[in-house]
Amino acid sequence: MRTSFSKLFFLCSIIFFSSEALAHKPSDSYLNFQVEDKRLSGQWDISLRDLEFAVGLDADGDGQITWKEVKNKQVEIASYAFARLQIFSGEKTCSIQQQNLLIDNHSDGAYAVLTFISDCDIQQDLEVRYSLFFDFDTQHKGLVRVQNGGAITSGIFAAQENKISFSLVHQSFFKQFFNYVKEGIWHIWSGFDHVLFLLSLLLPAVFFIAGNAYKPVASFKPSLNHTLSIVTCFTVAHSITLSLAALQIVVLPSRLVESTIAFSVIFAAFNNLWPIVKSRVWLVAFLFGLIHGFGFASVLMDLGLKENNLISCLLGFNLGVEIGQFIIVLFVLPAIFFLRNTRFYQQFFFKLASLMICLVAFIWLAERALDLKIITLR
Fold first, then answer.
1. Residue 161 DSSP one-character state
2. Which residue of 78, 232, 237, 276 pairs with 286 in a disulfide if CB–CB is 3.0 to 4.6 A?
3. SS3 state of residue 158
4. Neighbours of 9 (CB within 10 A)
5. Which residues contact 200 (CB under 8 A, 6 or more apart)?
6. Do 47 and 28 contact (CB within 8 A), yes or no?
7. Mean of the pLDDT values across residues 76-94?
8. Please, what sign has the CA dihedral across residues 310, 312, 313, 316?
9. Which pTM was predicted?
10. What H or E segment, with its residue span, contains residue 88?
11. How is the chain split into domains, by residue range?
12. Beta partners for 127?
């Protein structure tokens, strides 16, 4: 008994603390390069919220960051940021010269905008190394886009992948497609809110409800059918809204989308503890999947889309999300099916994991709806 509980505590601690990392809206910066006549220029949008933590912008401590306070910190901002960005072309290290400091608003708040030029004579390749905020926020992402004439390539910097090489030779449809497949897989794996929603729906897949009690299924087939119905409905739903948002047909406010995604995780986890929806769980997956699709679309749009690569990007990213989901299900479902008859899973892991997911998602909801920052990863 004591050994089982220790295992349970360890597993649930992993769920909780890995989820802590994305308790608030993920920290992102947006890096745009433009290559014209083999010369490089760029723009870097960095959240004032993150810069406040890194260099300290709020001089008077009143909780409000003014333009004057940002301008007074211009040297520190530029020094901090560009010390964490390196650009190479061939064997040459490119110098970076800041031009202007501006302010722009994104869906999640105000950003400092650094414009810059480089002395590089760009040939056929460009290598970028990025380490902004990784020293205190390992969940930070840098979304980068390189525009070379009419061609656009993009990528995502992460703590585990802080170097990207871009070929400035025109990319084929299939090259663009597979790049976005990779980005879709990475996004679903790093998007803990999407993963925890899916896990909350999978945890009871090895049970059936008799009265008000969960009972383990006798064979794998009912669990597989239940899972297929959930994943299919979730996939169809988020594919619809991902496409609508990427095509700018339907656009919803970021705070509304992120808050509703957090609520979907709460609902799914709470339903495991006190079943409200006992049948047609696929409908829950579909309805909330519509909102998750808008969340996926926000990342896809931040990567940059234009008419010449819209279809390949949209199809590739969506396929990547589905592959990422499939791999999660492939690992989780057989494991929980194997454990379904154990007291460890029935009495401890299933309930405690659902409870902890519910609590973490409640913090997400409070932070996203009220623009708070309850949990900070240091």
1. B
2. 237
3. strand
4. 12
5. 265, 268, 269, 271, 272, 354, 357
6. yes
7. 91
8. positive
9. 0.69
10. strand 85-89
11. 2-23+191-370, 28-172
12. 88, 165
